[in-house]
Automatic annotation (TrEMBL):
The lineage of its organism: Bacteria, Bacillati, Bacillota, Clostridia, Lachnospirales. InterPro entries: Cro/C1-type_HTH, Lambda_DNA-bd_dom_sf, Nuclease_put_TT1808, Restrct_endonuc-II-like, Uma2. The keyword Nuclease applies. Residues 6-61 form the HTH cro/C1-type domain. It comes from Hespellia stercorisuis DSM 15480. The keyword Electron transport does not apply. It comes from the Bacteria. This is Endonuclease, Uma2 family (Restriction endonuclease fold). GO terms for molecular function: DNA binding; endonuclease activity.
Length: 258
């Protein structure tokens, strides 16, 4: 379904974005992003909820000689463009590194020595703080899986993440839902993946704090989604970067030997 059709139906019902958010169960911020076009690839779960809240009648799918309920259109349409699922993800050969985002695979190269060096150095800061402050949250590293949207079409592997809700890892296989804190170390082969696609997904899913560490540019981009939406703060590798999740903790990037 096109966004314009959704907007037209909303106008017909004289429904505000706030009312649509309340009825669909989708956050107002996410509804605003979807309807404005800021979110280019909204999750199927959010779209299904919004469409259901608008009480569309049954209709004929364009190009298909069948009448279906509008609530099922997202699944029916996406099937024609080969939407992969978590079952496909787990069926990949073990030597293939990939993430699944909204039903599409994004293949990843092996991490570089620099990537692993920075990840190891960062882990020391966080592990030491959690240990000495009796932190209740847990630190995890890739290739730990995250079922970010709690659906069958997205499975990510953040480079580093902190999870504070133990129920999200009770299944023993993956994090079910959004981690509280995520760090991604930019891959030179595909920086847009971390800066744009993942940033949007993490924001929409409810990640509180997201750091993008760029070794080539020696820059850290910090999103505090929990308090200021999508406005980032930029730091360099000479700065001390405060951790919003842990007041009092600062990561001194000048101590990371590149």
């Amino acid at each position: 379904m096109q966004i314009e059709q959704i907007k037209a139906r909303k106008k017909q019902l004289k429904m505000t974005n706030a009312q649509l958010a309340e009825k669909s169960g989708v956050s107002l911020g996410t509804v605003n992003k979807i309807l404005s076009g800021a979110t280019r690839n909204p999750s199927s779960a959010n779209m299904d909820a919004i469409i259901a809240a608008l009480d569309f009648p049954s209709y004929k799918l364009e190009g298909l000689d069948t009448t279906v309920s509008v609530v099922r259109e997202t699944s029916a349409f996406n099937a024609t463009v080969c939407r992969y699922t978590i079952d496909d993800y787990y069926a990949l050969p073990q030597d293939i590194r990939a993430e699944l985002i909204d039903g599409q695979f994004y293949y990843m190269s092996s991490p570089s020595i620099m990537h692993q060096h920075i990840l190891r150095e960062l882990s020391y800061f966080f592990t030491d703080y959690i240990k000495h402050n009796h932190g209740k949250c847990s630190l995890y590293f890739a290739p730990c899986d995250v079922r970010l949207d709690k659906d069958d079409y997205t499975m990510l592997q953040p480079d580093m993440m902190i999870i504070c809700d133990p129920e999200k890892t009770q299944n023993g296989r993956y994090c079910d839902g959004a981690p509280d804190f995520i760090i991604e170390i930019v891959s030179p082969s595909n920086p847009a993946h971390d800066y744009y696609k993942k940033s949007e997904k993490y924001w929409a899913a409810g990640v509180q704090e997201y750091w993008i560490v760029d070794p080539q540019k020696e820059k850290i981009t910090v999103y505090l989604f929990a308090i200021n939406d999508t406005i980032p703060t930029l730091y360099t590798f000479k700065d001390k970067v405060p951790v919003q999740l842990y007041p009092g903790l600062e990561i001194d990037f000048s101590k990371i030997n590149l």
